[in-house]
Amino acid sequence: MVNREWGETSKAVYKEIETTKIDLALKHKKVRADGTDKNCFTFVLHNEDHTLGNSLRYMIMKNPEVEFCGYSITHPSERKINLRIQTKGLPAVDVFQKGLEDLRGVCQHVLSKFEVSLVLSNPLEMYLF
Question: For the DNA-directed RNA polymerase RBP11-like dimerisation domain, which residue ranges apply (predicted)?
């Protein structure tokens, strides 16, 4: 789950992008990014699996500025994803952030629709919330 402070973190990334090793602090995870230029990065997401990897890959690939996005899990016993992003011109960090924001929006939409249908399916529960 991505916290709401992600926008502040992405601003700090631009200061460190020259080093090509970036540590982004998310709520309970660390994301590390390695790359040789701003258009091509590999993000390492710790404590994640195919659920986030494939969903995030799908959301990022919907961006027309993305040439390539793929992920791999290093080993079945490790909960770590390597997510590779290559863009046509935009910084890969921005594309990664937008993919996370888009995925969060989709999840929020699904959750709100589920909650509404739950309340509508049992009118008595409406008064329990």
Answer: 41-112
- Domain enclosing residue 10, as ranges: 6-123
Is 82 within the bounds of a domain?
Answer: yes
Nearest to 98 by CA among 29, 6, 27: 6
Number of domains the chain contains: 1
- Residue 67 corresponds to which tokens in the numbers above? 């040439």
Q: What is the CATH number of the domain that holds 48?
A: 3.30.1360.10
Side chain identity, residue 8: E
Express each pLDDT in 84-108 by its tens digit. Answer: 999 999 999 999 999 999 999 999 9
Cα angle for residues 45, 78, 55 (degrees, 5° grid): 45
| Cα angle 33, 99, 48; round to 5 | 60
**Domain-located, residue 69:** yes
User: What is the rounded CA–CA span in Å between residue 3 and residue 56?
Assistant: 16
Q: CB under 8 Å to 57, separation ≥6 — which residues?
A: 69, 70, 71, 83
